[in-house]
Specification:
The protein has about 400 residues and is an alpha/beta fold. It folds into three domains: about 270 residues, Purple Acid Phosphatase, chain A, domain 2; about 55 residues; about 50 residues, no CATH class. Helix content is about 30%, strand content about 20%. The strands form five sheets. A six-stranded mixed sheet has the order 6-5-4-1-15-16. A six-stranded mixed sheet has the order 7-8-9-12-14-13, covered by helices on one side. The longest helix is centred in the C-terminal third of the chain and has 18 residues. The chain starts with a strand and ends in a 16-residue tail after the last helix. This is Nuclease SbcCD subunit D. Heterodimer of SbcC and SbcD. Keywords: DNA recombination, DNA replication, Endonuclease, Exonuclease, Hydrolase, Nuclease. Belongs to the SbcD family.
Amino acid sequence: MRILHTSDWHLGRSFHRVNLLAAQREFIDHLVTTVRERQVDAVLVAGDIYDRAVPPLAAVELFDDVLHRLAELGVPTVMISGNHDSARRLGVGAGLIERAGIHLRTDPTGCATPVVLGDDHGEVAFYGLPYLEPRLVREALDAPAAGHTAVLEAAMRRVRADLAARPPGTRSVVLAHAFVTGGAVSDSERDITVGGVASVPAEVFDGVDYVALGHLHGCQAITERIRYSGSPLAYSFSETAHRKSMWLVELGAAGAGNPAAPGGAALSAERVDCPVPRPLARIRGRIEDLLADPGLARHEHAWVEATLTDAVRPQEPMARLTRRFPHVLALAFDPERSPEDPLASYARRLRGRGDQQIAEDFVAHVRGGRGPDAAERTVLGDALEAVRTEESGAGRGTGRGGAEVAR
């Protein structure tokens, strides 16, 4: 079975001040063309279809367009909601849409009800695990704790129980939207930290033939059978080095795959590149050097992030840079400082520290060196988590046994 794995479309998102709707439409055209020309048997979209809970009308129209086009091709499509999506809104009409071969999985309690497709080697069960907000789905999934690992393990127990009751040789694919340990992050993914821990071990997904992940925006393989497709477009300058693509996965017969997983299906994966609307570039240095350096000519047609290191902030830097780099979108200042400069020392002390560590360091500072004890660290963690929850609460609500999250 030939499977096209994609995720993190973020329809409706812009890149700094640039509207990306045209680029997203070009990607959708590319997706549909790939499905048709490569004779894809199933399309998987692993969450974050929209960029926010209440997307703009143009984004909804684009999503409606791709649903119709995939349905016309007669290729089954399985989609899950991500942490940016409103699960309840995205899932409206799922039962009706399913009749057209579009399978929306947005209710966590339905994670063990697969979409079952067949090929010459038998059946393949596709299990959709939408983004699981731990505090909202813990009870519904009978998870022992409100953490990412706990709720995903609870969901996977249900998946394995259903799979065990199916005919021998049934192959399995899981779609999930999560941060799996070992994945490389970028600046454009919103934090899903709960209790200071966001990542889950890859072993959570043991026992299935392929795991189609969403959330991280870089295309990458955690293992041969656990992969992120990444976002089809760059949504931050931290993705400058990304090669945007989708995974075209060939799932073969059961029993012909990984020797370490008896009964596992044979599997191969190929990257299918996505269209690039405009390359990205990060440039750094004193403004006069950036304007004069001939080696930077290759970036004159790119979207540019410029970091100026001048000791004194130059006059009208954006206007001057734009004359050479007409698509400069972001400007930052990082003045060159001597090691004795107190501002440089402060920046070094903060580098690489998370909110929890900075808060604990502050407590130690005002107490003359005595940091918080275990109970106080818990209070600080709960307070920081409450702030994160409040900031991400817009558009959140609970639905039938599930969760609705906008982050």
